[in-house]
From TrEMBL:
Cofactors that this protein relies on: pyridoxal 5'-phosphate
NCBIfam families from the UniProt entry: PRK09082.1 (NF006569), PRK12414.1 (NF009079)
Enzyme Commission designation: 2.6.1.88
Entry's Gene Ontology cellular component terms: cytoplasm
Organism per entry: Christiangramia sediminis
Name this protein carries in UniProt: Methionine aminotransferase
Length: 384
């Protein structure tokens, strides 16, 4: 025992995030880092200039707790034009410290001891610890087949009187799959007779490929009345380190979310909010992203087409899963580690997001990288 008394952990089963582990390993071994999801190219100079300008103009003190008014207005305009939903600027939107805080506050505001929350696996790594921290119980459902489809009948079958919330994520990290309109309608139908809250993680809403349309929970009128939709400017505008995002929800839900937001961060970095508000005025700044990232996905897949990896092209996000069963029969965690140490390339083993850490021989690669980095990474992958 270290320390003078024993600590009983509130999250005994929770380990250090795989993103921290793999990025550290990449740094330690001077490897190409396609593990943690962040771009290795710069955010737009115009956006950096807008931040500088906001600082020079004196926007350096606390903004309102719900976020800067002009930013809330611009986001609401964007949602109206893309998804046809009208949120109230004063009571139905909050700017958060990244989507991470939005997800944390949304779960914490509603999940009580004994409540059940349906989580579709593989799932992003903050959902379940946050549910548990609040005394809730994650009810895991495995996504099915190579395309990681949701079995909606299974979802229906696990609903009980204790089900408080269901969490979805589209486009989906780590698989790069998306939910279709039909999926969302099925979900809407399943929830219609219940009091279940939908927490919709849409941080990759602008990164969607092959002419597919993002199916936001905001688009479906009945669904949106029970939904909290979370988004991330870090993901959208290539500046994950600015940790700014937001959530939108009907007023009765947002009122509770704000109570948690006020006692965790109160308000969020001010100059960035001013800059994003200005930058959002040009819709091209986000509408161009699908094409930009689809070109990167296609480049990466073309570069590895003669390798021994197999794959289904990602439909959204900036991740590509590659199956390595044609290369080795070691497990994904060991292979990922060896790939860094012996070959100088970092990825994310997908098993850490699965039920019982099931290994499907898949690694996740982030293609939000310069073409030069993708070329170097592909060269390594083709030699395996
Ligand atoms: N949800 C998913 C699915 C993610 O991949 C991430 C990582 N960006 C987040 C939430 C957290 O977003 P942020 O960096 O804005 O906190
Ligand atoms: N969302 C990013 C990913 O999936 C990482 C976020 C984090 O480092 N916590 O890689």
């Amino acid at each position: 025992m270290s320390g003078i008394f024993e600590i009983k952990s509130k999250l005994p089963g929770t380990k250090t995030s795989i993103f921290s582990i793999m990025s550290k390993m990449a740094n330690d071994h001077n490897a190409i880092n396609l593990s943690q999801g962040f771009p290795n190219f710069e955010t737009d100079q115009k956006l950096k200039d807008l931040v500088t300008r906001a600082m020079e103009e004196g926007y350096n003190q606390y903004p309102p707790d719900s976020g800067v008014q002009v930013l809330r207005e611009e986001i609401i305009k964007k949602i109206r034009s893309l998804y046809g939903k009208e949120y109230d600027v004063d009571s139905e939107i909050t700017i958060t410290s990244g989507a991470t805080e939005a997800l944390y506050t949304a779960i914490t505001a509603f999940v009580k001891k004994g409540d059940e929350v349906i989580v579709l696996k593989p799932a992003y790594d903050t959902y379940e610890p946050t549910i548990k921290l609040n005394g809730g119980k994650p009810v895991q459902i495995q996504l099915k087949g190579d395309n990681y489809k949701v079995d909606w009948e299974e979802v229906r079958s696990v609903i009980t009187s204790k089900t408080k919330m269901i969490i979805i994520n589209t486009p989906h990290n780590p698989t790069g799959t998306i939910l279709s309109e039909e999926d969302m309608l099925q979900l809407q139908n399943i929830l219609s007779e219940t009091d279940i809250i939908l927490l919709s993680d849409e941080v990759y809403e602008h990164l969607i490929f092959d002419k597919e349309q993002h199916q936001s929970a905001s688009k479906f009128s009945e669904l949106s009345e029970r939904s909290i939709v979370c988004a991330s400017f870090g993901k959208t505008f290539h500046n994950t380190g600015w940790k700014t995002g937001y959530c939108v929800a009907p007023e009765n839900l947002m009122k509770e979310i704000r109570k948690i937001h006020e006692i965790t961060v109160f308000s969020v970095v001010h100059p960035m909010q001013r800059a994003y508000a200005e930058y959002l005025k040009n819709a091209e700044n986000y509408l161009s992203l699908s094409k930009f990232y689809q070109t990167k996905r296609d480049l990466f897949l073309n570069l590895i087409k003669d390798s021994k990896f197999t794959y289904t092209p990602s439909k959204g996000t900036y991740y590509q899963l590659l199956n390595f069963s044609g290369i080795t029969d070691e497990n994904d965690v060991n292979f990922a580690e060896r790939l860094v140490k012996e070959h100088g390339l970092a990825s994310i083993p997908v098993s850490v997001f699965n039920i019982n850490e099931k290994d499907n021989n898949q690694l996740r690669f982030c293609f939000a990288k310069t073409d030069e980095t993708l070329e170097k990474a592909a060269e390594i992958l083709c030699k395996l």
